[in-house]
């Protein structure tokens, strides 16, 4: 009986121990599972917080760069690719040459300087579509091209005449190292013109009396409401001859011995592109793309001209600054690794 009682107690203890062990194991599994879940939760929260800080930092950096690009943008007049890629620079000169016209020396000369200074530009193409205009504005652009050519002798300037390069338009073209045309282009018009109207007879017919007071006998020269004066006309003709002489001298300096001795060249008439080659006013047939490829050996073209709205300017300058910053950062890291 005693043995049976001892066995029963032993069995009860074993059951109790087994039950406790099973309960302990189950609790241990639950604790481990909870710890794993808690660890994953904390890790996910940490990762989210880390990414949130990274996103906030990037957003702040982008905003800061955007702010800099808006208020400290400088005078870049070319796309972002001009900062990082070798290219042929193109400056489009389209319209009349006037102080406040489509082509004016202040704007053009600033872009010319930018194109020459950019180390990634292999040369400059002047894409010309101009009937001319102001002799002064034309001369200012002409002089700046020649000055920059001396400062950067490794960079050539090629003029490409599309529709027309007449008068002041050709004045500018003659500063280039070479001039290429289409056989149907209009080239030349090396001369000076002055025009006006006379209303003397009209005033008589409608019964209007002209009353004019001047200080200086030539102050009213060529007044359209006064009769022609031969002495005044002679003065204007002398002045026009001087301007014509300046134009001729500039063309001779630019074209040199390439010009023929045909007197028609400086008569003020225009020629087709085909005729201009024969006369030495241009060098051959070509387009912007063919010159970039065959003369400069760099078919990738970037146009340095064109007005931008505020959004385009902001985006462009922001990207420029971002890429330049990344380039500088990469360069700094490269230097550090090379040292250590």
Topology diagram in text:
Layout: H1 2-71, H2 81-84, E1 87-97, H3 105-117, E2 121-133, H4 135-151, E3 156-166, H5 168-173, E4 178-181, E5 186-188, H6 200-206, H7 230-255, E6 270-272, H8 273-279, E7 284-285, H9 288-294, E8 301-303, H10 310-339
Parallel strand pairs: 1-2, 1-8, 2-3, 3-4, 3-5, 4-7
Antiparallel strand pairs: 5-6
Helix pairs in contact: 1-10, 3-4
Features:
340 residues; elongated; 8-stranded mixed β-sheet; alpha/beta; 2-enoyl-CoA Hydratase, Chain A, domain 1; 10 helices; 2 domains; disordered C terminus
CATH architecture designation of the largest domain: Alpha-Beta Complex
**Biggest sheet, open or closed, and with what strands and sense?**
8 strands, mixed
Radius of gyration: 40 Å
Distance, first to last CA: 88 Å
Helix-and-strand structural type: alpha/beta
Number of strands: 8
The H/E string reads HHEHEHEHEEHHEHEHEH
So how many helices? 10
